[in-house]
Structure formats: structure tokens, C-alpha cells
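Subject: sequence -> C-alpha cells, single chain

Hey, anyone have a minute? Need the predicted structure for the following. Not urgent.
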Amino acid sequence: MGAVLACGHGAVLSHRSAAALWSIRPQVEPDLIDVTLRTRAGSSADDAVSESIVARRLPDDELTTHCEIPATGPARTILDLGSID
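Reply:
Had a minute. Here:
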């Protein structure tokens, strides 16, 4: 939750970290937290801000909260994992 709060409005836990939150797979690197910054403008392709922070457009139906942490939903999380593994 700290990483999401630090990134500000529109930030959600994503990729490997969301997978750990949803118990899809364990968090292998606990020091690396994946956060996506939700944007309204820009390209539909991912624009990397850093290794673990990504800025991109996400539809509302791909976002939710789990354990009070804003995160990508399970289906979006699985799709995101396919782009990094």
C-alpha cells in the first residue's frame, strides 16, 4: 500500500506485486514493487517510467481494490504477467 500511496492518485498495484496480492503467484523479489500509474492521455502502449512503475491507460473494469489496496484485477494481472515473463 505504501508504494501505491507514494505514487499518488491513479496508482494501482500491478504485475508481479498484484499477482502476489491475488495469490496467483508468490512475490519473488519482495523489494521490487510493481505499480501502474493510470493515465487518461498518451498512447495505449505501456510507457515505462522506471523498472517497476509503468504509466498507461487502463479501463475502469480492469481495476479494483483487494485488502483495501488499489490493484489491477486478476484477469488484467495475468495478462500483465505474460508481458514480463
